[in-house]
Design brief:
The protein is an alpha+beta fold. It is built from 2 helices and 4 strands. The chain has a two-stranded parallel ribbon with strand order 1-2. The longest helix is centred in the first third of the chain and has 14 residues. The radius of gyration is 14 Å and the shape is globular. It starts with 10 loop residues before the first helix and ends with a strand. The C terminus is likely disordered.
Length: 107
């Protein structure tokens, strides 16, 4: 899954629901992390208010959360599925972009 660090895409919801389903039947999950293609644009916007969760907002993160899919997986592990057997693998060493709009680079 490739995510761009914004809550409006369904990749994060898909990953969270897969993680919850896997934990329920004791299956392991592997998340391949990689840099966001548009880099780090900062953190801004409101979080989801309780009761307003949806497929594009399953967990209270800001509108622009700036996390990679692996960082989101670690957040979900800590807050939603701590009993999940998992592996989060980085695809290279991501470097955060220095300026807004600058693509993230792999070392």
């Amino acid at each position: 899954l490739q995510d761009v660090g914004s809550r409006y895409y369904t990749f994060q919801g898909t990953m969270l629901y897969c993680m919850e389903a896997a934990a329920a039947v004791r299956l392991p999950v592997v998340v391949l992390d990689r840099p966001n293609p548009i880099g780090f644009l900062g953190i801004e916007g409101p979080t989801i208010r309780p009761g307003f969760e949806s497929f594009v907002g399953p967990h209270p993160v800001p509108t622009a959360h700036g996390m990679t899919i692996g960082e989101l997986a670690r957040l979900y592990l800590a807050e939603r599925v701590p009993d999940l057997s998992r592996a989060i693998l980085a695809a290279g060493a991501p470097r955060r972009a220095a300026a807004q709009g600058t693509p993230a680079q792999l070392d």
